[in-house]
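User: Can you predict the 3D structure for this chain?
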Amino acid sequence: MTDAGTMEHLEKQQYRIVGGTGAVKLCHWMRQKLINGRACYKEEFYGIASHRCLQMTPSVNICNFRCLFCWRFHGMTGFEGVRYPEPEELLEGCIREQRVLVSGFKGDDRCDPSLWEEARNPDQVAISLSGEPALYPYLSDFIELCTRKGMTTFLVTNGSVPKALASLDALPTQLYVSVTAPNREIFERLCVPQTPNAWDNLMETLDILPSLDTRTVIRHTLVADWNLGWEDEYAELDELADPLFVEPKGYVFVGDSRTRMRMDNMPSHAVVREFSGRLGDKLSMEILKEREDSRVVLLGRRAPELSIR
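Assistant: Here is the predicted structure, written as structure tokens:
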């Protein structure tokens, strides 16, 4: 549940709260695109426009994991009996607050006026900012609303609520499942689940993933001295999920993770690429794309149309 201390902390970090549990925040790459023209790796990989991406969450303070590597604030105190905003309130509120957040760029001489105007009208929704979005009871309706308004959606989940994913009537444009441990033991220590059977629930999510008629991605957030290696075990999990893509991505020492991790837990891009090459060999996948500044590699079995547009 949200308390005054949590809200104050989030607001200091430039989150804008919508409907009590929703939130929007400008990401680093939104600023980079508007000021320097540098785009997020997702623009290069998947064809979204970084400056038109609405980075939001329906559950800013609600998560059932306490992942040690997470840059988000771990100030949640519970997620039972929460009053969530309706989809229309959530989407309209997030767009409204996004416009407030980008308003200051208009007076910056480095900002292209046409990009600024487009940023005020997002066409891509990243449902991933903080918390676990699959706990939001109106997730399917929210995705359907975004689709109806001509917006693409990227949903990122920790895989702990398989029933929520299986019951989606409206599917996101692209569904990410975070698999940040090769086995149960490392999962329990690194992801610190707050609910029972979390690993088993993740396995159930991976099992149902092939039945979902949308683009699917498994993301491995790699933390040096914690979960790097174990390519055989990661490959078994990825084969179960049978995703279109696998995204190995290096942990970055930022945000609140700095209170739980060390700088040397951050692997170099070269290490991430070496891991990706070994994993790709086991999955019969090739490296399709990579971005050194984001320490991320994209693996796929073939070279499909990457762009969502």
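Residues 4-300 form a domain with the TIM Barrel fold (CATH 3.20.20.70). The first strand starts at residue 16 and ends at 18.
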